[in-house]
Amino acid sequence: MKITASLVLAAVLALSSAPANATVLDLSTMTCKQFVDGGDDTIKMVLVWMDGWYKGDSDEAIIDTDVFTANAKKFGTYCGKNPTISIVNAAEAVLGK
């Protein structure tokens, strides 16, 4: 099974910035409001997860920071306008293929 760079980066971010009292993020139930209010660490982890999720196993293990930043801005704008929608549905609306 191919491990993308996004997944590796997510693991590194999660391990290096996780607080001493670990937090479980259920991305399937997280709303856009929770995402926006979650703080820098939560926002970073969700964005990296989203990048890897939408690349899938078939894409190159490359992070294009210009594309990543553009997608993050689109996602943040969408979530800001739709605070009650789940982040999974927001990601599908913004990045769905």
Put the structure in a nutshell.
With 97 residues, the chain is mainly α. Helices cover 63% and strands 0% of the residues. Helix 4 (65-81) crosses helix 5.
In whole angstroms, the N-to-C terminal distance is 22 Å
Q: H/E series, N to C?
A: HHHHH
Helical fraction: 55-70%
Based on DSSP secondary structure assignment, what is the total number of beta strands? 0
Low-confidence stretches: 1-9
Beta-strand share of residues: under 5%
Using only C-alpha atoms, the radius of gyration works out to: 13 Å
**Number of helical elements:** 5
Keywords summarizing the entry:
97 residues, globular, mainly alpha
Task: Walk me through this protein's architecture.
With 97 residues, the chain is mostly helical. It has helices spanning 5-17, 32-37, 40-55, 65-81, 87-95. The longest helix has 17 residues, at 65-81. It is globular. The model is unreliable at 1-9 (pLDDT under 50).
What is this structure's SSE topology?
Blueprint lengths: L4 H13 L14 H6 L2 H16 L9 H17 L5 H9 L2
Helix pairs in contact: 1-3, 4-5
